[in-house]
Write a structure and sequence with these properties.
The chain is mostly helical and 170 residues long. The protein has helices at residues 3-34, 47-59, 62-74, 80-92, 96-109, 113-131, 141-147.
C-alpha cells in the first residue's frame, strides 16, 4: 500500500468511527425530543378549599369564601376550579365585572369541558343581568368592560387573564 491509499483508508476508518459515535448521540437526542414530558400530578387541594366550598354553597358566606379562594390562588393553587368558585362568589356578591373575568379565565384555560360549560353559563347570566340594569353609570362596570376597545373580538377572545398572572385579582 502506498501512502495515498493508506491515508484514504485511515480517513474512511475515521469517518466510520466518528459516524458510530455520533449516531448514538443523535438517536438519544431524537428520543429526548420525541418524548413528551410527563405532567407532574397537581398536589391535592388543602382542606380549607372544601371548607370554602361548604361556606359558599351551604352557609352563603360569599365574602369569606372568596377570601379563602383568593388566598389559595395566591399560594400556588391557581387552578380552574379555584377561579370558577371565585367567579361564583363575586357573582353572588353582585360584583359582575370581576365575576365575568373569573368565568372568562376558566373558559379560556380550563381543560375540563364541564367546568368550561359552567363558566360559560355563569358568564351568560352575568351578562344578561348586567344588560338589564336600569342605570348606567359608575355601578355598571360590566357594560364598560364588554364594550371596551380591548374586547373588540368578544369576551371569549382569550384576552382575559393569563397563565403568567393566573387570572384577575379581586
Amino acid at each position: 500500500m502506498n501512502l495515498k491509499q493508506t491515508s484514504v483508508v485511515a480517513g474512511l476508518l475515521t469517518l466510520i468511527l466518528v459516524g458510530q459515535l455520533v449516531s448514538p448521540m443523535e438517536a438519544e437526542a431524537k428520543a429526548k425530543k420525541g418524548k413528551a414530558k410527563a405532567a407532574k400530578p397537581l398536589p391535592p387541594y388543602p382542606p380549607e378549599f372544601n371548607d370554602a366550598v361548604k361556606m359558599l354553597v351551604y352557609d352563603k358566606k360569599y365574602k369569606e369564601a372568596f377570601e379563602i379562594f383568593d388566598r389559595l390562588d395566591r399560594n400556588g393553587f391557581c387552578r380552574d376550579k379555584t377561579h370558577y368558585y371565585m367567579g361564583l362568589c363575586k357573582h353572588n356578591m353582585n360584583q359582575l365585572q370581576e365575576a365575568a373575568q373569573h368565568y372568562q379565565v376558566v373558559y379560556n384555560f380550563s381543560k375540563d369541558q364541564q367546568l368550561k360549560y359552567l363558566a360559560a353559563v355563569g358568564y351568560g347570566q352575568v351578562a344578561k343581568y348586567a344588560k338589564n340594569r336600569t342605570y348606567s353609570g359608575q355601578g355598571n362596570l360590566f357594560a364598560r368592560m364588554s364594550t371596551g376597545a380591548s374586547n373588540a373580538a368578544g369576551p371569549w377572545s382569550g384576552s382575559g387573564g393569563g397563565a403568567a398572572d393566573c387570572g384577575p385579582r379581586g
